[in-house]
Input
Amino acid sequence: MVALMLALQGIAHAENLPPIKTIFIILMENGDWAAMKGSPSAPYLNNTLLPMASHCEQYYNPPGLHPSLPNYLWLEAGTNFGIYDDNVPAQDHQSSTNHLVTLLNNAGISWRTYQEDIVAGYVPLGNTNNYLARHNPFVYFDDVTGTNNPSYAYGIAHIRPFQELAADLTNNTVARYNFITPNAYDDGHNPQPPNNDQINQIDNWLAGQIPHILQSSAYSNNGAIFITWDEAATQDGPIGMVLLSPLARGGGYFNNIHYTHSSTLRTFQEILGVMPFLGDAANATDLSDLFSRYSVTEVNYLPGGQCQLAAAGVIPGRTNLLQASTNLFTWDSISSNVSATNAFIVLDAKATNFSQRYYRLVQLP
Output
């Protein structure tokens, strides 16, 4: 008889996060979640996306952080650098290299931002068409722009017109980290005549663009789309955070955990494996609860000393290894399978050979 049984939480990439390969984050503007959820002006969000997604009910912009620009900077660096205005980069540019895309670049991880209403060939440091520079955090960092140089090659290569996204999805050439900003009408910032319905403007853009991402191999091959808002229209929120991913719990799942933009930044750092945590991301709760969690959920003794183990939360079609150890250092696989569902049962016939036995579940990419 086994004297001790310990069922360990399944091992996932970046602690409790699954192995996400491609991130898309889409930023909308100035929206209270109470105004978006259930709104007749947002049929695509409410009737199509939310039933298939995971989402947060208690997601906020950082306390007292307004207007737009400080929140965009926070999502990139975990701080607003003391900025509480919407000035262009000429006034608010930062010399700091302590921000996400520089960590990515230093680690050899590809990144790109797609900005609607800019044109190729220059770094968009000023407002143009319906593009607002304050909705593009990357133009505020000197190491991205060559200190406000519109001809800086690195910035041009990474800050791309939104219309290029469609071809990059088709050709499977999107980066691992993709930051998407609609223009000032499509993100709901400015009312668009004749209807002047900012919620419907957001919804129409999502309905027109999200399907292209969902149909891409970048999404189907362990991709994740995060849709959120920069700040609340009323105080600090809640604002929306919607997650679409083959690796998400989905099915309309939601939680009431308190999150801020620091949570999103921390989640991205964990997924992409770049440290140390930036600014307030070090203090935040990540968004792992929105994703599928897999673990050994039950261990039952059988006559003769054998053990039956139940696993749940696995992603169908992926290879699962149920491993055992007597010392927590050396692990042997006692089962390898590809489950058609999110749960399976394994028998450990060798359990009778040991005085103690530890288990863990590993899901391969």
In short: Residues 4-13+293-363 form one domain. The mean pLDDT is 92.
